[in-house]
Structures are given as C-alpha cells and as structure tokens.
Amino acid sequence: MTRWRYAAATDTGLVRDLNEDALYVDDTLAVVADGMGGHAAGEVASDIAVQVVRDQFAENPTVEGLYRGIETAHRIIQADARENPDHFGMGTTVIVVGLTVDSSGV
Fold first, then answer.
1. Which parts of the sequence belong to the PPM-type phosphatase domain (predicted)?
2. H-helix or E-strand containing 42?
3. What residue spans define the domains of the chain?
4. Between 49 and which of 21, 73, 75, 91 could a Cys-Cys bridge form, CB atoms 3.0 to 4.6 Å apart?
5. Residue 70 has pLDDT above 60, yes or no
6. How far apart are CA 73 and CA 71, in angstroms?
7. Cα–Cα distance, 82 to 65 (Å, whole number)
8. Which residues contact 33 (CB under 8 A, 6 or more apart)?
C-alpha cells in the first residue's frame, strides 16, 4: 500500500472572513475543494463535494468511482441551491486523486 505524506493549510486572506475550503485525505484518496468566494455558501458546496466524492469512492474505488462522485456531488449541490434560497449560486472547484491496486485517477 502506498503511504502518503501530506500537510494542509488554508488562509482566509485579507478580504474574506470565512474559509470556504474542504479537504479529505486517506491512504487511497485525496480530495480538495475550494468554494467559490463571493458567492453564497461556498463552504457548503465544498463540504458536499468532499463528502460525496469520499463516499462514492469508498463504494467504488475506481476511476469511474471518482467520476461518479464528482457528478453526484454536482447534482446534489445544484439541488441544494434550488431548495435553499440562501445557497443560490453556490459552487466549488474540486480536485481528486484516487489510488487503486491497478490504476490511479486524477
């Protein structure tokens, strides 16, 4: 099993009061999401993206599982924004790296 060494740090910078980043790392998966600053609920979108990608990859630890996780997170974020007016326009960027026995996906 590949062992990763990692560190993470975030900074709100000089303009924002709230950090909208989310991060998850384990032995087979790294997910980093950066909420869209200046838009509503970027931190919510980032949390959703990280949780959904993590859960989907746990169920299906393949490159297809990574794609499915990102697509599912996108749909959930859109639905949340439609159902909650305070979240209208929320979004995030996400990058994932998943390791499997026979391949890796980015």
1. 19-79
2. helix 42-59
3. 21-105
4. 73
5. yes
6. 5
7. 26
8. 21, 22, 23, 45, 46, 47, 49, 50, 92, 93, 94
Pick the more confident residue, 102 or 93: 93
Nearest-10 Cα torsion for 59, 93, 1, 103: 80
**DSSP secondary structure letters along 16-38:** -SS--EEEEE-SSEEEEEEE-TT
Domain range 21-105, its CATH number among 3.60.40.10, 3.20.20.70, 3.30.70.260, 3.40.50.970: 3.60.40.10
- The number of residues making up the chain comes to 106
- What is the reported pLDDT for 32? 95
